[in-house]
Design a protein that fits this description.
185 residues; alpha+beta; 4-stranded mixed β-sheet; 3-stranded antiparallel β-sheet; 5 helices; 9 strands
Length: 185
């Protein structure tokens, strides 16, 4: 089975509240690095991987009206950035939103592009996940999209003209929001 390379964005996002840089669960002051990795065909395992336990967990997550408005605003902002760059709008994908709900919940305790089980981020559903952006502690669409666009590698996912679909989710823990963007072809 031939699969196009999957893109992952890892890097750092500045938190608006604390002035710290958050990178895969570690807080660092001062230094900002911005790197991306590519998933190659050798990373592909036979068949589609769906983590049934995580999908069931995600189905219990609730989305408030405020969060739904924020998600729609984030979709609109992302597509506005794409239009300005000459890229087609991303279509909202329910399947990718299901994956994003899983990932948004997982990053509460383990902020990383590696899942808490140690599996790769794309194993929520390896047939449809080709890029990922994560963020935490941004409680508005404007602030999270601005942070992603300020990061060259996160912006690269948003502006990648090959991506055609997008699923986003927010998971709330206490007063903090955890965001996941999952991109597909």
């Amino acid at each position: 089975m031939k699969i196009r390379g999957k893109k992952i964005i890892s890097g750092l996002l500045l938190t608006a509240m604390m002035g710290l840089v958050i990178a895969c669960g570690a807080a660092q002051q001062g230094m900002l690095t911005d790197t991306a990795a590519v998933r190659s065909e050798t990373d592909v395992v036979e068949g589609v991987i769906i983590d049934d336990e995580a999908i069931a967990l995600a189905s219990r997550a609730t989305v408030t009206n405020t969060m739904e408005v924020a998600l729609q605003t984030a979709y609109d902002l992302v597509n506005a950035h794409r239009a300005n760059a000459g890229a087609a709008a991303l279509t909202r994908s329910q399947a990718l939103e299901d994956c994003a709900r899983v990932r948004a919940q997982e990053i509460v305790g383990y902020f990383s592009h590696t899942r808490p089980s140690g599996a790769e981020w794309w194993t929520v559903n390896s047939d449809i996940q080709y890029g990922e952006n994560l963020a935490k502690l941004y409680n508005s669409a404007d602030s999270v999209v601005a942070a992603w666009m300020a990061s060259p590698t996160h912006a690269q996912n948003i502006l990648d003209a090959e991506f055609r679909t997008l699923g986003m989710a927010i998971y709330q823990s206490g007063n903090n929001w955890y965001w996941a963007q999952e991109f597909g072809y």
